[in-house]
Specification:
- With 122 residues, the protein is α+β, with helices and mostly antiparallel strands.
- It has a single domain, classed as PH-domain like, CATH 2.30.29.
- It has two helices and nine strands; from the N terminus they run E-E-H-E-E-E-E-E-E-E-H.
- Strands 4-8-9-7-6-5 form a six-stranded mixed sheet.
- Strand 1 and strand 2 form a beta hairpin.
- The longest helix is centred in the C-terminal third of the chain and has 14 residues.
- The protein is globular, with a radius of gyration of 13 Å.
- The termini are far apart.
- The mean pLDDT is 86.
C-alpha cells in the first residue's frame, strides 16, 4: 500500500514497487498550496469514478478490482491507486498537479485527520 507523509511543505506520496509499475508513475510531492482537504472514501463508493474518462488514462484499470495511474477528467486529472473493497484516502486538490489523489492506505481515517489538522494549523 502507498504511504503518505505530511510535512510543513506539503505531502509526500510514496508508492510501492508494484504500484509504481501499475500506475506508470513514481513517488511525488503535493505542495501545501495545492491541498484543499482530505476525506475517507468507502471501498464500495463508485462516485469517485464519476466524470473520469476511461479512454484517456495512463496506468491500469481493472474495473471493480484495481485502479492505478492518471485518469483524465473534464477539467484535469486524478491520480488513483485504489483496491476495490478497501477504504481509501481522497486528497482534494486545487488542480496542481491533480484534482484528486485517491489512495488505498493503511489507517485512511487517521491520515485524513492528520492532513486536515495540518491544514487548519496553517
Amino acid at each position: 500500500m502507498a504511504s503518505i507523509e505530511v510535512h510543513n511543505k506539503g505531502i509526500s506520496v510514496k508508492l510501492t514497487l508494484a504500484e509504481k509499475f501499475w500506475s506508470l508513475s513514481g513517488n511525488f510531492e503535493i505542495p501545501v498550496t495545492s491541498i484543499r482537504g482530505a476525506e475517507v472514501v468507502p471501498g464500495k463508493a463508485l462516485a469517485i469514478f464519476d466524470g473520469i474518462s476511461w479512454v484517456f488514462r495512463v496506468g491500469t484499470a481493472l474495473p471493480g478490482v484495481y485502479y492505478a495511474g492518471r485518469f483524465l477528467r473534464k477539467n484535469g486529472a486524478d491520480f488513483l491507486v485504489v483496491s476495490a473493497g478497501k477504504p481509501a484516502l481522497q486528497l482534494n486538490l486545487s488542480g496542481k498537479p491533480y484534482l484528486r489523489v485517491i489512495l488505498t492506505v493503511p489507517n485512511a481515517e487517521k491520515v485524513a485527520e492528520d492532513v486536515n489538522s495540518a491544514l487548519a494549523a496553517c
